[in-house]
Automatic annotation (TrEMBL):
Signal peptide positions on this chain: none
Reaction(s) the record says it catalyses: L-seryl-[protein] + ATP = O-phospho-L-seryl-[protein] + ADP + H(+); L-threonyl-[protein] + ATP = O-phospho-L-threonyl-[protein] + ADP + H(+)
Protein name (record): non-specific serine/threonine protein kinase
Entry GO MF terms: protein serine/threonine kinase activity
Subcellular location: Cell membrane
Amino acid sequence: MTASTIHYMYGVYPPKDMICVYSTLRTTRGGNLSAVAAAAWHLQDGARVGQGAGERSREYDARGRGALPSASKQMRRCQTGLRTRPALGASTQDSSKMMISIKQRLPTPILILLICCYSIVTAANNDTTVPCLPDQASSLLQLKASFIGINLPSWRSGSDCCHWEGVTCGMASGRVISLDLSELYLISNRLDPALFNLTSLRNLNLASSYFWRPELPVSGFEKLTDMIHLNLSDSSLTGQIPIGVARLKKLVTLDFSLNYGLYFDEPRFQIIMANLRNLRGLYLDGVQIFGSTWSVVLADNIPQLEILSLSMCGISAGSIHPSFSQLRSLKKFNLRHNWGLGAKVPEFFAELSSLRILYISGNYFEGQFPTKIFQLKSLRTLDLSYNPNLSVSLPEFPNGNNLEKLNLEVTNLSYHIPSSFANLKSLKSLSISTTGTSKELPSLISKLPSLTELELQGSESGLEKAVLSWVGNLKQLTSLAVVSYDLSESAPSWIGNLTNLKFLKIWDCNFSGSIIPYQIGNLANLVGLYIGDCEFYRFQIPPWIGNLTKLTYLEISDCGCSGSIPSTIGNLTLLERLQITSNPQLNGKIPQSLFALPRLEKVYLYENHLSGSLEDIPYPLTSPLSFIQLNDNQLSGLIPKSFFQITNLKCLSLESNKFTGTVELNYVWQQKNLFFLSLSNNLISLIDDEGERVPPSLPNIRYLYLSSCNLTKIPGTLKYLDAVFNLDLSSNQISGAIPCWIWENWKDHLLRLNLSHNMFSILEKTPSLVNMTFLNYLDLSFNRLQGSIPIPVTTSSEVALDYSNNHFSSIVPNFGIYLENASYINFSNNKLSGRVPSSICKASKVIVMDLSGNNYSGSVPACLTESVNLSVLKLRDNQFNGVLPENSREGCNLQSLDVNGNQIEGKLPRSLSYCQHLELLDAGNNQIVDSFPFWLGTLPNLRVLVLRSNKLNGTIWGLKDGHQNSNFTRLQIIDLASNHFSGNIYSEWFEHLQSMMNSVSDDEQILQFRTNVSILGSYQDITSITYKGNTLMFTKILTTFKAIDLSDNSFGGPIPKSLGKLVSLRGLNLSHNAFTGHITSQLSSLTQLESLDLSWNKLSGEIPPELASLTSLAWLNLSYNNLTGRIPQGNQFGSFSNSSFEGNVNLCGRPLSKQCDTPGSTSPSASAPSYTNSFWQDRLGMILLFIFSGLGFTVGFILAVWFQSFCHIERWIHKHR
């Protein structure tokens, strides 16, 4: 039966896609009419066969964030859940539901005709059904073997593959014509070539799979010439779309969406689209489309296109050609989040006469929005949101306008709202920004009779104060969102009037009180309640939350909640998902009744301050709980065994709490559905009783985090798990060998491995090159490993490797060949020696390179300083010699260069001036002979400059020295100590250090370098300076730390008064110079100063009494000058010892024994110079100081002084003279 036959019998043409359904009915075995017919109306309505996560993920939230690529797919899965889908036609009940939907969608005559035709065809072919052909079953089994840990029980050798889950065969051919494994979350390292042996495929749906970012096969697709529906969305695929897709000329729908590594170049897009003339639905969201001809190509080749989804495709401005208006069949057009679209919205969009849905949100459209688009009779949904430069003037709306959904949030909406806005009688959903709109808007909205969903957006630049009481009159509303408002002056009690509300969202708002309006507790029909990112004053979750007994979803996040979770939450017997997160003041126990809720599946209570112990979960074998995230709290006590007996549990995250006791791993291994487990950073001990024997059942764990769990060995059962993707056993007490089975058993699966901070000493039977196909992160740091560094041979596009702080002594010379995609390499603090292998230059994509703390010699490899990708280069504490290469070039991205502690000679290379992002330069402790490098002042971001202990000479009398824009305005640490500088320092030298002049300190942040190493995040650097008499190693440099060290030079003249302007200075060391004159009283302006060392100069006069006002001063050394008079008393001066003032024969008063009223009485110990004593006190000890973890500078360095006093340094020195 053809379309023309149906037209002849009924006077209408069937939907185009119903012809596809009929042809499928003729060849489909198994009687699954509902599934096939459902596919037709799904397609007819704008969806596609077997739609997976792709379409749903494209339902962006009103904030415009959308379905962005996640940095860690396992976390997304842990939060969204693994949904399983029954086999096609597996349930009569499901079939019935689908039939009901079909009846609602199709004309009754056509439906009856199709059923009759199907019945006749089925009856005629009952006796001629061909079983699955052997080659088809073989290909499917090969395909199954490529999936990791997937449970397809019906896929068994020897059985008819036509009855396997997700498989449909042609009755007369025995060949597979449909394969739908969507949302089974298939995991594989490749799209197996066996798939392309199924050459009769018409429908292929592998949506929401995880293919570990392999490139799409270059060949294979050209074999599937019968394909009608192809869906590979959300599958982590990368690379160019294969040209073989052009051979699929029967394609009706093509979906590559949400594969953010895929791309079309301009010629290939043109070739493929020119051959897909039957295409009706094209979904390329997240696929990069290069060039500007895409709109012309589509208009010329696929004029019958009905659905086009191109969000996040990198489409540029001016690329929408007027010929695009030829797509008169286009019903849905999604152009969201193409940030390069900065032009005007094309007027010819109004010519798309079939257009029902238009999404252009999240772009940078500008100019006036064409009002004619509003008047498209076919238009039902229009989303213009998050185009802040787009001017929108609403036109006059005539009666009969069919618009149902309208989103105008964060646009430049005209103040005038026409009264005809009330004519939008069909409008069901409205999202609008109220900033700057007419006062008539509330009354106009109240006249919209069909309105059931309303989102009101306040100001993006700051919370908007607005009176929203009028919303309380919209009693027909079923969904309300209130975003970015200041509600501190008028609590929204009017919400209580909206008794029909099912969904309520309050986001980014400010409340004056400590509770949300109690009237919400009267909304008995609420199904979903979302409160997030709001500001309350000591907000407590109210007990009346238990009155909302119809709630299935409750979220209260980042609201500054205090108090505890009320026990009345146990009344929410329909609750399926609970999320109360990121409330650091929320404390108390988790109510016992919570885990007993009969429908609760997902519990997210992470990043709070919850305490107490966990109660046993009642009836864990039948509990619906599947996701439990309680990490980052203060929970204590034992972890109940019942948590490891929940049959449906898929994700359990208990990390970063204070749990104690033991956990028997054999309970964990019994959890067949568990794929994510984190017990890290608690006080528990794990017991592994299984040893080396294979347990009776194995879990499907893919992500296992057991850091800081007091493990003394690697659990034996891990050896038998078929595929662990992420394994973290760091910070335990595991000793001995790293077993070879880690590399052998998981070579095709392992993505991340962290064994750092243990006591491993050897690598068992591990070669220098280890085949790890997809490894992207390996951390073996802080162990006792010896021998050769194992280099992974991996295909991953980004690799981070950390072997630091071990005893490795060698590395395969050609290692760089295998690290071409490495972005982070850390070999520091090992025993590597000789010249750096030249193959290191092959690692051309490296962003962070750390070779420090080895015995490397020879010259610095020129390729390292020439690289434009390198952001951090650390070569400190080696034996490098020669001069630094003079080859940095334009485009240099260096942020940190550290060559401290080598034997570098010559001058600093002036080519570093190309490195405009440089923040830290440490060339201290070398043999550099040069004058002061004034040209470094042209680096606008330079914060740390360490040139100590070199042979630098000359004066530094003027910072600018004729160099334009040479000012060092952001410099926060400058260390020129132990050089040969001389001459006076003039006031203007310090007057350019603006970063040190800010009286209001920067936010206390760690100086870190934002690299593009996504698997690592920011990189924190290290440097060392002399501070408070000690050489301190700063492993985390705070941006608030400001210090100057000019000690051990030959500077002379007076101390510049301009030093007093550096009010945020924390440390100042001018010791061992030849400064003369008085100590300037302007130093008393340095209110944050913690360390001041002016010793061993020629200073005279009295100590300014104003210095006693420096209450932050924890270290003072004025010894060995010519100071006179009384030592100031009070505040910090009362805490300093004799050593701070000795060597000044004319000083008197405490703490010296010489009293001011008896000038002649001096103590030999106080007056006799002792260079040795002071020298050792200034230089003794390398104190590693981690400046973070809640310790401020003053506390941290007082601990350093405390350490010195308790070590009895002076007594030790006296004993060893």
